[in-house]
Amino acid sequence: MRYDLGVRGGKELMVAGERLVALPQRALWWPDKETLFVADVHLGKAASFRSRGVPVPFGSTNETLGHLDGLLRALEPRHLVMLGDLWHAKDGRTPDVVAKFLAWRREHRHVGMTLVEGNHDRRSGRLPADSDIREVEEPHLLGPFALCHYPETEAAGAYRLAGHVHPGVVLEGRGLQALKLPCFLFGSSGAILPAFGSFTGNATIRPAASDRVFVVADECVIEVPSSA
Description:
Largest sheet: 9 strands, mixed
Strand content: 25-35%
Structural class: alpha/beta
Oligomer: single chain
Number of strands: 16
Radius of gyration: 17 Å
Order of helices and strands: EEEEHHEHEHEEEEEEEEEE
CATH architecture: 4-Layer Sandwich
Shape: globular
């Protein structure tokens, strides 16, 4: 399915000679290759916190998988690439959370899926065998892109797509008003995607003058000055 028939509100960019679309759902779409990129899903994070006695609300796994389900149905990609940290921790893989994850995977069994191993994935252990998700180490090359988890990974001349940072920028307004929003950052040698998961938070970044920054706001992706 073409982008303009699916999810709206995105921002098109030419990156490494390819047309990409930064989506307000905090994902990156490569239309010509029918490939969707997400980073830092962090399934089971709330369950992990609860297992350690931290009283956090229920529902983040359902919300995250629901958002991903909506994207897959709207765009109908052939391939989904997760740029690290699909799971948050081993103690977050409760029977209930794993069952929801496997049910979601069966609903989208026609989509090829690849996980670029992140630091939380290593601590969580290998995926269930019936998840049918290929696990690879970074950098994993795909066309002109090096698929990574860490933004600083050496990419041998390829344009790096990464996560890990959970990037956000603070926008300031009148009357000392300030708002932190998740963002995409596109630099000269690589990009950092916002965290996809519903229970992740954002870390304030300080872009270089040459970086392009796009915030996710009101179901739209909007470019802001890198000094924001």
